Structure formats: structure tokens, C-alpha cells
What we know:
single chain; mainly alpha; MFS transporter; cell membrane; transmembrane helix; transmembrane transporter activity; MFS_dom
Amino acid sequence: MSSTDLRLGLRANLAQFSLLVLVNALVGGMVGQEQTVLPLLAEQEFHLSGYTFLFTYVFVFGISKAVTNYFAGTWSDRFGRKPVLIAGWLIAIPVPLMLIWAPDWGWIVAANLLLGINQGLTWSTTVIMKIDLVGPRQRGLAMGFNEAAGYGAVAITAALAGHLAEQHGLRPVPFLLGAAYVVLALALSSLAVRETREHARLEAGQPTTAPGVRTELTNGQVFTRTTITDPALSSASQAGLVNNLNFGLSWGLFPLLFASAGLTVGRVGLLVALYPAVWGAGQLATGALSDRWGRKHFITAGMLTQGAALALIALADTFSAWIAATVLLGAGTAMVYPTLLATIGDVAHPGWRARSVGVYRLWRDSGYAAGAVLGGVVADLADIRAAVWAAAALSLASGISIAIRMHETHPRNRRADEEIA
Length: 421
């Protein structure tokens, strides 16, 4: 496609957009294969004691994904989006095999190092590519579809892996899902996905970006703006970190908390899946609504809702109560997740937007590691419920900070020249 044929908008790019939604579902499924099974594998096959040691796999995943997010943004600007996407899937090839054949916990940790790199390269790139395609008017909707696909697949795969583990054992059958995802995603990314960097350049030449935003920044300036100096970008970064701290903590501790109440593996898998399922499906609505109503209030309410949900999880001790609490936690996360990414797209100029997305995702996915450290240390020093209480307090503090510091970023008063679906 020549540069003169390029158009922005969801309708104009529906085929490629839909393909990227499918690819990101496969990205999410790679995480979902682990969520129910690995904590149980740690206890039952590797006989690990101590929550901090068990959390090493979440910590390594979070650190590797966070750092890779940063480079995914800079490499996407330098080399293009598609090569980065393909590289991410090539790195994923050994992950399910390592999980299946791991003779000790070190192999599991190494597999999660590679999985974090895979997630950082592939998920970051699908985010950037969708923002490129749709232009400024429909960022919330685009991010809603992207994150709904990813976390919907996390939920479905977590539930399916739990069912397979209950029927066939913890290994190898649940991890065969991941092997199939890698093969399909690598084929689609190599053969069907098209480069989108020229769409970002097209948008940069149109009068649709925020007034007063600098068009050229160094990598250091982008990092500083997104981390500290810009109230909206830095607020999004801290909220993203706390949000994923909650997810990282849930990944390691929730299966153990639910199992400690005598729940079967199938019920544990259902509860673990409910959180990302509601999170994923809810984003289809919240992303689009943030395009109409703005970003700030969704983010504030979402962080406060997560805090309340975590408090309920810490208090509850029955299956039905945990169902209600995990649904509430998923709803709060759905309000936040696509809206934070849309905020980055609102504020960052197309010339440095991919790098800003990379920095935001660096901080956001550092939350996995923070959740592993917080959850592991507090659970070892006190108990699992105390760790959940700590996450609840941080979520409430994050919501209050957003309400005080962040300004509204939605470009509702700007003219949009792209075709509206």
C-alpha cells in the first residue's frame, strides 16, 4: 500500500485491526496457560516452601517484560513495528517446552524470563500498531478491543488449563495450549500482518495532535516526561504500576488463598479466570465510553474500585463471596486498563508516541515484579490476607493521587480528520 492510499480510522483498517486483535489474544493466552497451573505445580511437584521463593517466576516475568516494553517502543520507531512483533514470537518458541519438561524450578524461572520478553515485544507492538491505525478519535475503543482480546484470552486459557490439569494432570497437557498459540501467532505475524509505522507518520502531518506538544524529543526527554514531569503521562504510569502490582499478586497468591479454603482445582481455576474475564469483556465498553466521557474519572473510579475489591477478597472465605469480589476487581481493572493507554495516545505526539508507550509499559509491567515482592514478603512475614490488604491500600492511594494530580486528556474539542467507523 502506497503512502497516498493510507487512511486513519477503524473502518478503513478493519481487516488489519481485526487481525491484530486475534494476535493479541494469542499473546494473552501465553500468560493464561500458567496462571492456574504454576502455583499448584510449585507446591505439588517441586515442593517449594515460602511465598517469596515461589514468586520468583512472577518477579522475573515482570522485570523482563517491563524492560522489554521500553525497547519495544524505541525499536518500533527505529526498525518498524512488524519486525519487533515477529521477534517476540520467535523468542516464545521454547517457553511451553521448558514448562513441560522442567526438571527443577530454575527451568520455570528461565521460561518466564523468555515469556516476559515475548510479552513485552508482542503486546507493546500490537498496542502501538492499533493506535497507529485508528488515529486520535477512537483510541479508547481501539485499546478496549486490544486489551479485551488479550485478557479475555488470559481468562479463557486459565480456565481451560485448570480444567485440563484436573482431568489430565498438571503436565504436559495444559501447556500444549501455549505451543499451539506460538505456532499460529508466528504464522499470522509473518504472513498476514502489515507494517503500520507510515500511519503514525500520516497522523503526525495532520492537525489532530494536542496543541503545544513538542514533535521531536530525545529518548531521555520522553522517559522523563512519561515518568515524572507530565502530570497526565506520569499519573498514568503510576496507576498502571499499581494495577499490575494487583495482577502480579493475584497471579501468585490467589490460587493458594482459594485452595487453602479447600476449593477444588477446577473452582480455583474458575475464580482465577473470573478476574481477567470481567476485566477483558468490560474493556469493550469502558474503552469506548472513555472516548465519549473522558479519561480521568474512569481511571480514578477504577483504582478505587480495585481497592474495595481487594479488601473484600481479604475478608471473604467462601466461593460465592470470592466470585463477587473477583468480578468487582475485574470491573475496576476494566475501567483503568484501556483508558490509561488511550491517555498516553492523547498526550504523546506521534513522533515519539511509541517510545512513550514503551516507557509507560515499562513502569506498568514493573508492577508484576512489585506485586511479587510485596506479596511474597508480606505473605512470608504475616499471611496471604495481609498481602492482599497491602495491595488494597496502595490501590486506594493511587486513585486519590489520580483525582488530585491528573488532568483530563481526551481530545473531545479537537477536530479529527480520519474516517469514523
